[in-house]
Amino acid sequence: MFTTLMMVVMTVSGCNGPNHFYAENSYFGERLPEGLRLARQANTQEVDLSRLASGTGGSETIGIGDVLEIQVAAGLNEDDQSKMAARVQNDGSISLPEIGTVNVAGIEPQGAEALIRAEAIRRELYRNPTVTVSIAHQRMNKVRVIGAVKEPGVYDLPPNASDVVSALAAAGGLAEDAGQKVEVRNPALRGRQPRPSVADGSEGTTVDTVSATSGADSMNSYTIDLISAAKAGDGQYSVQDGGVVMVEKRDPAPVFVQGLVKKPDRYDYPIGQDLHLLDALSMAGGTSNQLADKIFVIRQVAGSKNPAVIQISYRDAKRSADSNLRLGPGDVVSVEQTPATVLMDVVNIVRFGVTGSTQLF
Questions:
Q1: Residues 33-75: pLDDT tens digits?
Q2: Sign of CA pseudo-dihedral 104, 109, 115, 116
Q3: Which residue ranges form the domains of the chain, and what is each CATH number?
Q4: Minimal CA–CA distance to 269: which of 289, 283, 258?
Q5: pTM greater than 0.70
Q6: Which segment of 5-19, 226-240, 276-290, 299-313 scores lowest on mean pLDDT?
Q7: How far apart are the first and last CA of the chain?
Q8: CA 23 to CA 30: how far, in whole Å?
C-alpha cells in the first residue's frame, strides 16, 4: 500500500503544448502574451451621456409642424388688435393674412416677433406694431426606445431636441445590463441624407464612433458605441419621428470554477465590473486544500479551435497583479491536484482514521 501511495503522490501528468502559457515569466514555458490578457471591462453606467447631447436650441425653438398664435397690436384699442393662428409648413414658413410669408423655423418666438413686425412695417400695414408670438401646439416626434433601458416605451420628443440622449433620458436611462452599442433606426426620407445630426441639417463627416446602414424596409440605421462617442463628444445623433432606439443588452457567459474549491459551480459574470482570479476563488468559497497552488485558467480564443490554457500559482496571485489574472466571460478556473495536495489528502485521511479508531476504544 505504501508503494502504491508513493506512486500516486509522485505522478505528474501532462505536458505543455503550444497553447499552454504561464501568467508570469517561467522557465517551464511561454509567458501569457499581452494579446491574450483582457482589458478592463467597459461600464456604460460611467458614461457621461451629456457629451452626446445635441447643441440645438431649447424647447421654445419653433419647428416644422408647430402651431403658432400671433397677436398684432397697432394701438391700445381692441379694434387695433388682431389674433391669428398659423402652422409652420414643411419649408419652415408661416403664411399670415396681408403680411404674407415669413420663415420662422429654427428660431425662438422673440425672433419670429421681430421678423413679423419688420415684414408688416415693410408692407406699410402698420407704423409701429407690437407683435406677440407664442407656440400654441408643438409638434412632437414619437420615438420608441427598447432594449436595456429602465422604462422601454414610446415617447414624445420635441423635434429640435430629438436625439439619442433625450430618448434615453425619457426611458429612465440605461439599465444595469446595458451594453456599449446603441442602434438608431430612422424612417428613410427621399433624397440625399446627411450624416445623422440635430445641429443644423448640414452634411458632416463620418467618424469611427458611428456606422450607418440602410435597407429595403424604408429605414435608415446607424450604430453608436456609447463609450467612444462620449469621448468624442460631438453630439450628432438624431432620432426622427417614428424612429427606434435599441440599446444593446449584455448577457455575458458565466465563469466556471472547479477542482479543489469548496463550492465548485458556475458563477454569473458581473456586468460592467472586472472579475479577477482571486475574486472567482472567493465566490467558490476558497480552496479546499491548504496546499493547493496550481491553477489553470482555460480561455476560448477567437479564431482558434483550441483554447488557451494559462497556468497560475495561487501564491503568486496573492502578491502579483500579473498572476491575479483578469477573467473574461466563459473562462474556466480549475484548481488542480498536485503531489502536495494528494499527500495532504492522504494525511487527512490517515489522521481521520486514527482519530476515529481512537474514539472506538
A1: 998 899 888 888 888 888 787 655 556 788 888 999 999 988 6
A2: positive
A3: 2-40+274-354 (3.10.560), 45-58+140-249 (3.10.560.10), 67-137 (3.30.1950.10)
A4: 283
A5: no
A6: 5-19
A7: 26
A8: 9
